Amino acid sequence: MTALPADKPTKRFFPTYSLRRREAIAGYFFVAPGILGFLIWVFGPMVATLLLSFTDWPIIGQAKWVGLDNYVRLFTVDPFFYKSLRATLYFAFGSVFLRIVYTFLVAMLLNQDVRGKAFFRTVYYLPSIVPVVASSMIWMWLYHPDFGLFNAILKGMGLPPSRWIHGTQSVIPSIILMDLWAASSTILIFLAGLQGVPRQLLEAVEIDGGNWWNKLTAVTLPHMTPFIFFNMVLGFVSAFQIFTQSFIMTNGGPNDGSLFFVLLIYREAFGNNRMGLACAIAWILFLLIALVTFLVFKTSRSWVFYYGDEE
Amino acid sequence: MIKRKTIQKSLTLVVLIGGALIASVPLYWLVRSSLMTLGEIFIFPPLLWPKIMRWSNYYDAVTVVNFLLYFKNTMTIMIPVLFGTLLTSSMVGYGFARMRFPLKRFWFTLILSSLMLPYAVSMLPTFLLWARLGAINTFYPLTVPIWFGGGAFNIFLLRQFFLTIPRELEDAAIIDGASHFQIFARIMTPLIKPALIVVGLFTFLNVWNDFLNPLIYLNEEKKYTLALGLMQFQGTYSTDWSLLMAGATIVVIPPVIVFIFGQKYFIEGVTMTGLKV
User: Fold this and answer.
1) Is the domain of B7 the same as that of B119?
2) CATH number for the domain that contains residue B200
3) Average pLDDT for residues A213-217, to the nearest whole number?
4) Nearest CA in chain A to B17
5) Which pLDDT does position A17 carry in this prediction?
6) How far apart, in whole angstroms, are the C-alpha atoms of residue A271 and residue A266?
7) Full residue range of the structural domain in which residue B31 is found
8) Does the CA dihedral A46-A48-A51-A54 come out positive or negative?
9) Which of B46, B179, B216 is closest, CB to CB, to A147?
10) Containing H/E element for A173?
11) Which of A24, B6, B9, B245 could connect to B34 by a Cys-Cys bridge, CB 3.0–4.6 Å?
């Protein structure tokens, strides 16, 4: 009994001290898979890609340090690089902007008080869960120059047929169109955002005699800019990495018109066994995405509005 | 005023129906073509629907290529990936949402930033690593990395859900002497069941739809997943569009069913991550 009072303070002091420490240890235990995963599967390989991009490595045999040779080659003599750059940029900018316009319009329509809203939402969302391999095959068939549905429609309307994915001019627009069809998950994000547009502001515009255009430009659009911004950033990141569509439908053609960056990387690495060169292209892709993301962030200050202060 | 509202409403409905019809055309065309004979498929102008529905195309599709084997392979990848994702992404998400430890923000930002890194920039060294380990043509490269947190997106999503749970619950459990792991497993995880369903559904779709990874790592036909196996029609039977369409239909159906039943969760997941960055 006499020993207890002496014990008590240390017992009380010790647990409160170690509680925080124990939490920190437990915390690291919980997040360890994530941190390790980032280091092993993301950061480590990224650095390795950078190092390999300064080498010449035909996979079999030793990697040879060649400095900037791969980059010099890509920017000066490589026959595919600029074509690939053009195809990737054309697709990325085209698809990201059209995606935002299209999904925003659909979300605006779905946000009206219409019957069967849930049904429409399902119908519009469904294409985005179709496996890209399958949708590439479906669209390849729709785009078939001789027996495809699209040319049949054109012919029915008395218009000349298109070469679609088989024409150098039309291949990227065709892939963008297909991508729009599958872009519907963005609709849900916009729809959620639209539900947060304050009704009283819309009504205020109405009372002042404003029409739908005034409501859109004065209230809805400014309120939606954070969502547009978010979708734009993630849209660019994914659009720059398009691969499966052209791998299946065109194999990069015609005339390398759809030879997107990732397809070129795949080809150089696994077709031509040029690991070093493929790594250099991968890093250029990374820097390109970083640059575009940076520019979007930079300009966002002038067009993205946050309502944080009001709440 | 009321009249104008009704006109506007019917106009919206008309546009929505028109758009829905256009959006459904590719899937309609898929099913329509999958039920045709080769003779019918090459009629121009095209028929809208086959005269007799040729269901045998489906039987031919699954026998001409090794469909059952591809399905088995896909599932052999799916099951460990689902387990790994659910277990580790909820652990990591929980850690970042509820625990206090030094450098928490730093690590979280770093992991989140990987959402913006292109996969291509880490793809090749990862491949070389697996090649050195002799794991090409095995399923390990497609399953093992998932056990490290299940991807930044899932970590982020679950963290968002864990953040919504009131702190009092934990405090009460700590006072009762529960360990952190007990709190996580017995109290918190049951509360975010809907979020785990979201993660499970997204993971299912990712594995089912993944193309680039199986393409890189699985070179033997015996190891193909369904997404890869579908390409077999293209190579070997490049002219047989009706079989290709039947095969594609079979691959499309499971995600569609999963989506229709899990729709509520999908919408919750998409809006939760889209709203609160």
Assistant:
1) no
2) 1.10.3720.10
3) 86
4) A120
5) 55
6) 7
7) 2-58
8) negative
9) B46
10) helix A171-181
11) B245
ipTM: 0.90
| Local structure of residue A145 (DSSP, 8 states) | T
Q: Where do the domains of chain A lie?
A: 3-52, 71-310
Domain A71-310: top CATH class: mainly alpha
Read off the tokens for A145: 């120059």
Whether chain B has a CB inside 8 Å of the CB on A49: the answer is yes
d(CA A308, CA A275): 48
From chain A, pick out residues whose CB is under 8 angstroms from the CB of B121.
45-46, 49, 282-283, 285-286
Residue A196, CB-side half-sphere exposure with 13 Å CA sphere: 19
User: Is the minimum CB–CB distance between B42 and chain A shorter than 8 Å?
Assistant: yes
Q: How many domains does chain B have?
A: 2
Query: Residues B16-23: what's their mean pLDDT?
Result: 91
Residues of B in contact with A123 (CB under 8 A): 20, 23-24
Residues B11, B142 within the same domain? no
B95/A25 Cα distance (integer angstroms): 11
Nearest to A149 among B8, B46, B91 (CB): B46
Backbone angles phi, psi at A94, to 5 degrees: -60, -50
Paired tokens of A78: 């490589």
pLDDT category of residue A14 using cuts at 50, 70 and 90: very low
Q: Under a CB-based contact definition with an 8 Å cutoff, are residues B183 and B91 in contact?
A: no
**Looking at the structure, do residues B28 and B102 belong to the same domain, yes or no?**
no
Q: Is B47 helix (H, G, I), strand (E, B) or coil?
A: coil
CB B130 within 8 A of CB B218: no
Q: Is A153 on the interface with B (CB under 8 A)?
A: no
- Measured distance CA(B53)–CA(B276) in Å, rounded: 48
CA distance B162 to B160: 6
Structure tokens given for A1 = 């009994």
Three-state secondary structure call for residue A65: strand
**Interchain proximity A142–B26, CB inside 8 Å:** yes
Contact A109 B259 (CB under 8 A): no
Q: B270 with A186: CB under 8 angstroms?
A: no
Token digits for A186? Answer: 């963005």
What is the rounded distance in angstroms from the CA atom of residue B122 to the CA atom of residue A42? 6
Q: Are residues B47 and B141 in the same domain?
A: no
Contact of B173 with chain A, judged by CB distance below 8 Å, is answered with no
List, in order, residues 6 or more apart from B101 with CB less than 8 Å away. A23, A24, A25, A27, A28, A31, B95
- Best CA proximity match to A136, nearest among A178, A106, A108, A97: A178
Instruction: Quote the pLDDT of residue A309.
Output: 43
Task: State the residue for tokens 């200050």.
Answer: A301
In Å, how far is B54's CA from the nearest CA of chain A? 18
Given a cut of 50, whether residue A8 has pLDDT beyond it is: no
Among residues A46, A36, A128, A28, the alpha carbon closest in space to that of B150 is found at A36
> What confidence tier does B276 reach under pLDDT thresholds 50, 70, 90?
very low
Residues B47 and B78 occupy one common structural domain = no
Of A135, A189, A286, the CB nearest to B274: A189
Please indicate whether residue A16 or residue B88 has the higher confidence score (pLDDT). Answer: B88
Query: What pLDDT is stored for residue A133 in this prediction?
Result: 93
**Pairwise pLDDT comparison (A98 vs A191), residue with the higher score:** A98
Evaluate whether B117 touches A46 at the Cβ level (below 8 Å). Answer: yes
Residues from chain A contacting residue B145 (CB–CB below 8 Å): 37, 40-41
